[in-house]
UniProtKB/TrEMBL annotation:
Originating species: Amycolatopsis acidicola
Alphabetically ordered keywords of this record: Lipid metabolism, Methyltransferase, S-adenosyl-L-methionine, Transferase
SUPFAM superfamilies with a match to the protein in the record: S-adenosyl-L-methionine-dependent methyltransferases
Domain Polyketide synthase-like methyltransferase: 157-398
Protein name, per record: Class I SAM-dependent methyltransferase
Similarity comment: Belongs to the CFA/CMAS family.
Gene Ontology MF annotations: methyltransferase activity
Pfam families documented for this protein: CMAS
């Protein structure tokens, strides 16, 4: 490939460099720190390089981490529609042939251009929002630190993003759901009905978040509900919420790891958006612990994101954007891996419901909430943290829409002598 960079303005040079690296014409518009612009004015992707430091970030990490560092730090910005831009960038990168046939002269021209732009130099310090955890993977202390990194951002920030329900998991957009709040209420009620809750039930919510499910279970079904979380901020919020609704006698919130719960048996267990933190190595421990905490005939509802079989890059990659900025040590398993672990613990799996499209809709609502309250979100946390969440949620919505990841509710029963205690039809136990 012959490509000599001759432009003398920053944007023109960057655009030519990108073309040389990716080896194709690009529907990409670039504006640089010197005010120069290059590329089609009507391009679907319009990038702004606010500082030459963005280039050094990409030189030292020419992957999603480099892009993430440039965006989170504010060195790189997006002027075009955020969802369309992310989708288009992914298509551009996937369709790139790459610099397969770059001769020595072209390499020298590329290096001189990068040097002139200030792209050659020491690696910039990563944004403060990036984290690397120490200690044994999925130990109690390390898991606690991972949860704290993600969830102790501040309750007020989460309220801006999640809305009044304070529910941080996939909503269910049934025919009656007109708002995000409606859809989240539909979700927790669906879980309660699948678990068969009533005033005689004692239910455990593993990873209870801000208490939405346990409060719904107590208020609407009269159930005695115990919620456990590793986030002190979540626990404080959930306790206050339960007290304000007059449900303190029915709702107990603990800062506790699921592996430390000892006061079973429970009639039902809900795990909503928590299993993603467990890790493949700990799945047998997780399912065995929940099995031991249930009475015979008790039900488990495991609601978890899954990766598509054969798709890599969504689990155990410690260098990914998700692991460095969002969910440290998070792992997505396939649906078959999860159901196998549940069955291996002794459960009988009775029902699986896929909600992939519902999560894409939920994430788009969260992004809209964040963008509508951007200035306040920045004041409550930092601009970098707000940027992390915008990128993470928008990219996740697109990934759900593409089918690379899904989310499923698995209903399982601790059957006794072959008796599940469930009605024969789905309609009967959901009524």
């Amino acid at each position: 490939m012959k490509c000599v960079v001759t432009s003398h303005n920053a944007a023109g040079t960057v655009h030519a460099l990108v073309r040389a690296v990716l080896g194709s014409a690009l529907p990409l518009h670039i504006r640089c720190w010197d005010g120069s612009e290059a590329g089609p004015p009507d391009a679907p992707v319009r990038l702004v390089l606010r500082h030459r430091r963005a280039l050094r970030r990409l030189v030292w990490a020419p992957n999603e981490i480099g892009l993430a560092r440039a965006f989170v730090s504010g060195d790189l910005d997006v002027e075009s529609d955020f969802f369309e831009s992310l989708s288009s960038l992914e298509r551009i990168l996937k369709g790139s042939a790459g610099p397969r046939d770059v001769d020595r002269q072209t390499k020298w021209e590329l290096f001189r251009s990068a040097l002139r732009l200030g792209a050659i130099g020491l690696p910039p310090k990563p944004p403060a929002e990036e984290i690397r955890l120490g200690g044994p993977l999925h130990s109690l202390r390390r898991d606690s630190a991972a949860i704290s990194h993600h969830y102790d951002v501040g309750n007020d920030f989460y309220a801006l993003v999640l809305g009044p329900s304070m529910t941080y998991s996939c909503a269910v957009w049934d025919d009656d759901a007109k708002t995000l709040e409606d859809a989240q209420t539909a979700k927790v009620d669906l879980v309660a009905r699948k678990l068969g809750l009533n005033s005689e039930s004692r239910v455990l919510d593993v990873g209870c978040g801000w208490g939405t499910f346990v409060i719904h279970a107590a208020r609407e079904y009269g159930a005695h509900a115990v919620g456990v979380t590793l986030s002190q901020a979540q626990a404080d919020f959930a306790r206050k919420r339960a007290a304000e609704e007059g449900l303190s006698e029915l709702v107990e919130i603990r800062v506790q790891d699921y592996r430390e719960v000892r006061d079973g048996p429970f009639d039902a267990i809900a795990s909503i958006g928590m299993a993603e933190h467990v890790g493949l190595s700990q799945l047998p421990t997780y399912t065995a612990a929940l099995y031991a905490l249930l009475r015979p005939g008790g039900r488990l509802l495991n609601h978890a994101i899954s990766r598509k079989a054969g798709v890599v890059g969504h689990t155990t990659d410690r260098t990914s954007f998700i692991n460095r900025y969002v969910f440290p040590d998070g792992e997505l398993e396939t649906l078959s891996t999860m159901t196998t672990a549940i069955e291996d613990a002794g459960f009988e799996v009775r029902d699986v419901e896929a909600l992939r499209e519902h999560y894409a809709l939920t994430l788009r609502e969260w992004v809209a909430n964040l963008e509508a309250n951007w200035d306040k979100a920045v004041r409550l946390t930092s601009e970098g943290r707000a940027r992390v969440w915008r990128l993470y949620m928008a990219a996740s919505a697109l990934t759900f829409e593409s089918g690379s990841i899904g989310v499923n509710q698995v209903l399982a029963v601790k059957s006794e002598d072959g008796k599940s205690g469930l009605p024969r039809t789905r309609k009967a136990w959901l009524s």
